[in-house]
């Protein structure tokens, strides 16, 4: 086997490890994205609980305002009753009675609203408890899922470390110039940078290469590139039929 053939085999090997490294990186990234997604979902659940608490607090505040309003009106009735004792004319007496009646109607309306408000408070309180229970359940589930994801991510990192070590070990066998050329081609093309040629067809872009280049490729005396996609191309003995 010529030195060029050996170097190409090394480049193909390095490329294979690079693909495994890419897959491991993607898995680590996907696992990380899933953990971020779980955190986002947890934050949404927390927002729902916060909103439920605010809704309950607003209802309680409105109820307290109605209580205060009812108290003010009750005090007005007391004052009006005191005024009744000092009236001197029937007209004044009837006027105060009418005023008292109006205040009582107002109080009655307020009390009705307070009853409605109590029902709303009870309903909102139940909703808040349900949201808190859902949050607690999701938080526990989220914690367990994240622990599992973290374990898987750590395993992938170990795999990645092993692959990087493997790549370094293989790369030491290659000519530094060859590795530099491989890295340069990788920057220019998508996918594989080193591809075989089958039946004068580049397996990178699937286009025919010139017959002369195909013949030269079989000499295995130097690196050659596809004139279309500019990938490093190589010929295998099994292609020679």
Plain-language structure description:
With 241 residues, the chain is mainly α. The chain folds into two domains: 18-173, Orthogonal Bundle (Helix Hairpins), CATH 1.10.287; 178-239, no CATH class. The chain is 76% helix and 5% strand. It is built from four helices and four strands, in the order αααββαββ. It has helices at 3-84, 90-171, 176-188, 211-217, and strands at 194-198, 201-202, 224-225, 232-234. The protein has a four-stranded mixed sheet. Helix 1 (3-84) packs antiparallel against helix 2. The longest helix is centred in the first third of the chain and has 82 residues, at 3-84. The radius of gyration is 41 Å and the shape is rod-shaped.
Q: How do you describe this structure in short?
A:
The chain is mainly α and 241 residues long. It has two domains: 18-173, Orthogonal Bundle (Helix Hairpins); 178-239, no CATH class.
Keywords:
241 residues; four-stranded mixed sheet; 4 helices; mainly alpha; Helix Hairpins; 5% strand
Fold topology:
Layout: H1 3-84, H2 90-171, H3 176-188, E1 194-198, E2 201-202, H4 211-217, E3 224-225, E4 232-234
Helix pairs in contact: 1-2
In quaternary terms, these chains amount to single chain
CATH fold-level assignment of the largest domain: Helix Hairpins
Please identify, by name, the CATH architecture of the largest domain: Orthogonal Bundle
State the major sheet: 4 strands, mixed
Query: Number of folding domains?
Result: 2
- By DSSP (H or I, 4+ residues per run), the number of helices equals 4
- Taken in chain order, the helices and strands follow as HHHEEHEE
């Amino acid at each position: 086997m010529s030195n060029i053939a050996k170097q190409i085999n090394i480049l193909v090997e390095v490329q294979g490890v690079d693909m495994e490294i890419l897959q491991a990186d993607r898995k680590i990234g996907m696992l990380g994205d899933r953990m971020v997604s779980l955190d986002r979902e947890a934050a949404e659940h927390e927002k729902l609980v916060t909103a439920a608490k605010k809704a309950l607090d607003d209802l309680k505040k409105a109820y307290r305002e109605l209580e205060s309003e009812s108290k003010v009106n009750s005090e007005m009735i007391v004052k009006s009753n005191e005024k009744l004792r000092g009236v001197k004319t029937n007209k004044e007496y009837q006027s105060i009675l009418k005023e008292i009646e109006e205040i009582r109607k107002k109080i009655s309306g307020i009390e009705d609203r307070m009853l409605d408000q109590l029902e709303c408070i009870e309903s909102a309180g139940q909703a808040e408890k349900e949201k808190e229970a859902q949050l607690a359940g999701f938080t526990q589930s989220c914690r367990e899922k994240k622990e599992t994801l973290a374990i898987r991510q750590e395993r992938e990192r170990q795999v990645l470390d092993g692959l990087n070590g493997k790549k370094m070990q293989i790369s030491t066998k290659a000519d530094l110039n060859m590795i530099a050329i491989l890295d340069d081609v990788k920057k220019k093309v998508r996918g594989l940078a080193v591809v075989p040629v089958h039946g004068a067809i580049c397996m990178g872009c699937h286009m025919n290469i010139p017959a002369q280049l195909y013949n030269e490729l079989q000499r295995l005396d130097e690196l050659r590139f596809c004139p279309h996609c500019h990938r490093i191309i190589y010929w295998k003995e099994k292609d020679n039929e």
